[in-house]
Amino acid sequence: MEGYIKVTAADAYDAERGYGFTDCSLVTGRVREGMHGLEADFCIPLGTSFVVDVPGGTYLVSILLGDAAVPTCTTLRTNGERLVLYMRCTAAGQFVRETFTVDVWGEPLKLIFSGITPRVNAVDITRSS
């Protein structure tokens, strides 16, 4: 997809690359046949973090969640503390985009995923200040 970097369940955090999952053993990936675009594939991060090295500042983060085949339920914290989504559930075939701001100072941007059936289709990160 133009404008996106494909991230798979096997993409462990790498300082040279500047992003990845902190524990890939807690992430699986799926591709739904017949689907297209950002909804076609996703990661299932069960209790692990996705880390992105960004300069200090305020960022607008937008997460696309959902699955064509099954209901999902995702909880998300940022940088270990701030709860931004609590049990955000979708029906099978439903996709939602949730957007929030995150302040990053002196550490990478960390998105900590949990929930009953988390699904992450896309993450957009834009510096807002």
The first-to-last residue Cα distance is: 26 Å
Count of individual domains: 1
User: What do we call the CATH homologous superfamily?
Assistant: Galactose-binding domain-like
Q: Give the CATH level 1 class.
A: Mainly Beta
Average pLDDT works out at 92
CA radius of gyration is 14 Å
Give the DSSP E fraction (strand runs of 2 or more residues).
over 45%
Low-confidence region ranges: none
Helix tally equals: 0
Helix content: under 10%
Descriptive report:
There is one protein chain. The protein is an all-beta fold and 129 residues long. It has a single domain, classed as Jelly Rolls (Sandwich), CATH 2.60.120.260. It has no helices and ten strands. The strands form three sheets. The chain has a five-stranded antiparallel β-sheet with strand order 1-4-9-6-7, with no helix packed on it. Strand 6 and strand 7 form a beta hairpin. It is globular, with a radius of gyration of 14 Å. It starts with 18 loop residues before the first strand and ends with a strand. The mean pLDDT is 92. It comes from Paenibacillus mucilaginosus 3016. This is G-D-S-L family lipolytic protein.
Characteristic key phrases:
mainly beta; five-stranded antiparallel sheet; 129 residues; 53% strand; Galactose-bd-like_sf; three-stranded antiparallel sheet; Jelly Rolls
Quick summary of this structure?
With 129 residues, the protein is mainly beta. Helix content is 0%, strand content 53%.
Blueprint (SSEs and pairs):
Blueprint: E1 19-21, E2 27-31, E3 41-45, E4 48-52, E5 57-66, E6 72-78, E7 82-90, E8 95-104, E9 109-117, E10 122-127
Antiparallel strand pairs: 1-4, 2-3, 4-9, 5-8, 5-10, 6-7, 6-9
